[in-house]
Design goal:
Strand order of the largest sheet: 4-3-2-5-6-9-7
Shape: flat
Pfam family, one: RrnaAD
CATH class of the largest domain: Alpha Beta
Radius of gyration: 26 Å
Number of domains: 2
Helix content: 40-55%
Structural class: alpha/beta
Order of helices and strands: EHEHEHEEHEHHEEEHHHHHHH
Family: Belongs to the class I-like SAM-binding methyltransferase superfamily. rRNA adenine N(6)-methyltransferase family.
InterPro entries: KsgA/Erm, rRNA_Ade_Mease_Trfase_CS, rRNA_Ade_methylase_Trfase_N, rRNA_adenine_dimethylase, SAM-dependent_MTases_sf
Oligomer: single chain
EC number: 2.1.1.-
Bound molecules: S-adenosylmethionine
Strand content: 5-15%
Number of strands: 9
Keywords: Membrane, Methyltransferase, RNA-binding, rRNA processing, S-adenosyl-L-methionine, Transferase, Transmembrane, Transmembrane helix
CATH architecture of the largest domain: 3-Layer(aba) Sandwich
Amino acid sequence: MAGGKAKKEKGKPHQQQKHMPYQGGISFHKSKGQHILKNPLLVDSIVEKAGVKSTDVILEIGPGTGNLTKKLLEAGKKVIAVEIDPRMVLELQRRFQGTPHSNRLTVIQGDVLKTELPYFDICVANIPYQISSPLTFKLLKHEPAFRAAIIMFQREFAMRLVAQPGDKLYCRLTVNTQLHARVFHLLKVGRNNFRPPPKVDSSVVRIEPRKPRIEVKQKEWDGFLRICFNRKNKTLGSIFRQKSVISLLEKNYRTVRALELGQEDSLKEVDAKMDFSSFGDDRGMEMDDDGADDDEMEVEDGEADEVQSEFKDKVLGVLKEGDFEEKSSSVSNRTLFFIFLLCIITQLVSLYLCTKYPFRNNVQKFPFKLSCSVTSVYYR
Ligand SMILES: C[S@@+](CC[C@H](N)C(=O)[O-])C[C@H]1O[C@@H](n2cnc3c(N)ncnc32)[C@H](O)[C@@H]1O
């Protein structure tokens, strides 16, 4: 249980002071990620940045005591709110009962991950962080596609969503999300904007589903990404030379060929029959999705039998053709660590030189400044 009990305000809830966050008289459950937004200026800013139109049907996930809901009701045509906690549902009903908004608010009580979502134009939500990954993918699968989802996430999760190739946080979650949507970072939010404050900082992100939708065999695609991101320290060339990878790809390739030739199964069924189990399970991509330990699987070049070698040539041919062989899925921690070490050494040498020969010109200052900025990026 997090946060203390808040005193119940006297009078009707909607008559509360204009800028006071409403929290009813209920205690907050940490297990349900109940950190309500207490800063009304921040709530205004989220709604403004969301670009809600007066004709919009808005989906809100986890309305809690309704601080965001109130602003959404003022901005849009209708709000559909999905809330797991019956106490919060009751608070919401009490808060909006008898107000001009009440007939434009629908509250669905239940777990959003298990709820069939209705049509909506835009989703605006301050969600419990533990459902970030499955919720993102549920929204991306939703049909018909909505205009945008403006969601508060834990900062690191948000930075993973918006990461670019070469970034330290670029991972399977990034690729899978950006395949289906364009993602923008909107706002950094400090923990003190919540009651009770969470242990981490947050960020608001805008997710815009790509239209038309990009169709992939999701299991095959995700299995492929798992192979690519499994060994961040290795180049794609060395990953795809491993006997275990080649055998797995070949087994799946043969399955697909057999099924397609037989034309017995739909592509969905073909996808279901693929096996990537040796590269982790099929759960959503969580924050600690950094790939397994590098020593787990040995590179066994040259041990492949005749058929495997032929198949291996095919795979390596594709890598060479796309100029991917020497690339790795993301900047490895090891590479970053070496850059970091190099910068520390440069800084120490610069400092030593500075104390001996005080700065006289910019040329002398440059290595020091450069290494300082690179080390600060490493720490970020
Ligand atoms: C971070 S609080 C946000 C509260 C409110 N939107 C605000 O900003 O003040 C998250 C809310 O989501 C609810 N919640 C937690 N898990 C949920 C789930 N699986 N489905 C729907 N709501 C959930 C919690 O009960 C809580 O009210």
